[in-house]
Design a protein that fits this description.
5 helices, alpha/beta, 24% strand, single chain
Length: 213
């Protein structure tokens, strides 16, 4: 069985990745099994600097960094929100947009302040997710997911996390905080990237190394 170690201390993100990986593996057909766990002892490992200035750079940096401390398969995520009216901000600073100790509520307040006075038709945005997969310290693959939408003028919905209550999916006519788990797996940036990850694993299942650590 393949064991994937998720290099994150964000419990909600870990749970979303676990749910997504299990969901897409179940749809991949028989013969594929995967154990998805938080990276053991991540709180004792020096944190990755995440100073590459891009989602893909940060994801690869994190995966390689934590892969030096733990053998086997390590998966790292870097993701965030890009708003066109803000020249792509908050971007790689999405998690700390409202300040170094900001929580989701503070980040959402800062985003709404920055967009004050911007008309609904000019609030286009996208969620971006990059997953980097490392095996025994070597980068094996990178997966990208993008979800397009727009930023609301006030929060809608009670689910999700981060900027989900402010991110409107025009096709489904719901905020990401109002999506069912199934809808979010199908539509979200992270769900799209995870589907690509599982497709890659399925295509490489014949490699003995996948199932040995």
């Amino acid at each position: 069985m393949l064991t994937l170690q998720i290099a994150s201390s964000n419990r909600t993100k870990i749970e979303e990745l676990q749910l997504g990986i299990r969901h897409w593996i179940a749809k991949s057909g028989p013969g594929l099994d995967c154990n998805v766990i938080p990276l053991p002892g991540i709180e004792t490992i020096p944190p990755s600097p995440e100073d590459c200035g891009s989602f893909d750079g940060n994801a690869e940096q994190k995966a390689l960094h934590y892969g030096r401390y733990r053998p086997g398969w390590v998966l790292a995520d870097d993701s965030g929100l890009e708003v066109d009216a803000l020249d792509g901000a908050p971007g790689v600073y999405s998690a700390r947009y409202g300040g170094p100790d900001a929580d989701d509520a503070a980040n959402n307040r800062k985003l709404l302040q920055e967009l004050d006075g911007i008309a609904p038709g000019d609030r286009s945005a996208r969620f971006v997710c990059v997953l980097a997969l490392v095996h025994n310290g070597r980068l094996r693959a990178v997966f990208y997911g993008i979800a397009d939408g727009e930023i609301l003028e006030s929060p809608v919905g009670s689910g999700g996390f981060g900027y989900d209550p402010l991110f409107w999916d025009g096709e489904l006519q719901k905020s990401f905080a109002g999506l069912t788990p199934q809808q979010k797996l199908d539509r979200s940036h992270r769900g799209i990237a995870v589907r690509k990850l599982v497709n890659w694993i399925a295509g490489h299942r014949a490699e003995e190394a996948l199932f040995t650590r």
